[in-house]
Amino acid sequence: MGSTDTRGSTDTTGSTDTRGSEDTGGRRRLVLLLALVTVLVVVVGLAVWLRGGGADDDPTPTAVGDSTTTAAAVTPSPTPTPTPTPTPTFDRTQLSLIDPASSWVVVNKARPLSPIDWAPADLVPFGNGYQLRAEAAQAMDAMIGVAAAQGIELSVQSAYRSYDYQVSLFSAQVSRFGEDRAEIQVARPGHSEHQTGLAADVGGGGCDIESCFATTAEGQWVAAHAAEFGWLVRYPEGGQDVTGFKYEPWHIRYVGTPLATEMQRTGAATLEEFFGLPAAPGYPG
Ligand SMILES: [Zn+2]
What we know:
The protein is an alpha+beta fold. It is about 45% helix and about 10% strand. A 4-stranded antiparallel β-sheet has the order 3-4-6-5. Zinc ion binds near residues 158, 194, 199 and 201.
């Protein structure tokens, strides 16, 4: 560096000295001009190259943007369908099967309500002086309404029955038909689903609380559509060995739409079967 500086200074001095000799001065000017032109060409070339580079830079982000869009478009497509697959897995433990206040409580001849004289706290009056638990009453209203719109006239024949009422009903059946037949037709007090406030007997088509209800348009409608409203025909045909009751096409039990539709989907005929509970054909002991 130091040597270049010295040469420069020597040249400057030389140029001032050699003003007289035009040949040398002309050559130097030519060299300087050439150098200047070269620098100019280089500078212009650089500017052009830089612009070109700038232009090159432009497509790069678009290309990146394009690839991002493609990536974004590709990424969501595999995500949607496979992820919700676990949703259909029905959680059979989400509600209690023992708590009498649970809409899934399973009451049968081997599973009395506990306490045995339990009564619901949210009973609401429901047509003809009957009572149901609030949620069941709402579901019954909805079902009767939709059925009526389709020309199906359903009527409630029985709903909530207290422990005390069941005591009198059961003893009346025993004295009328004898104990054996009463046991098949009416549950012992504390063993009736009607005591939960989630069961009802429905009639229509000129056949109330008789097996002929199954042959009426009303009975067939109930069998086909009750689940949509959270109800199930609790004592199905051929289920006596499991439920302890003969076929009762009129007796429906509210369990909520998720469970009722899941039972329909899986083809489970009874709550005992669906939850893997022991059959209860009779009272223990
Ligand atoms: Zn009933």
